[in-house]
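Researcher: Good morning. I'm working through a list of sequences from a screen, and I'd like to move beyond sequence-only analysis. For each chain I'm collecting a predicted structure so we can compare shapes side by side. This is the next one on the list. No need for commentary yet; just the structure.
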Amino acid sequence: MNNPRVAVFRKAHFNAAHRLHNPSWSQEQNERVFGKCNLPNYHGHNYELIVQVTGEVDPQTGYVVDLKWLNDLIEDNVLQKFDHKNLNLDTEEFKHLNPSAENIAIVIHNILRGHLETTLDLKIRLYETERNFVEYPA
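Model: Good morning. Structure tokens for this chain:
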């Protein structure tokens, strides 16, 4: 009999500034598409990150993954990179990638994916505001 698959979640928070801007567009087009998110002096968000890991329960530990380990993974590989940073200016990941919530979620997924066993599924939910959030993969 297969072990049951269970999803476990770890929530984290980080604060970061960004500017949504496409350098190949005119300033007028950037302002029209991105609105206030295109302000030249940037703006910030209090992001809420939820990392979901799904897999079989290990019969020896009762865990899908150790949540302390997952917490440390997020702290070391995501929060230290992005918390209290200007994503456009202070991070390599967004030097040439528009730091939309969608792209931030994909980047976080790609960072964490390499640290997990291939038998585990990973999903990222990122809240930019209380009412606006994205999930990757969809």
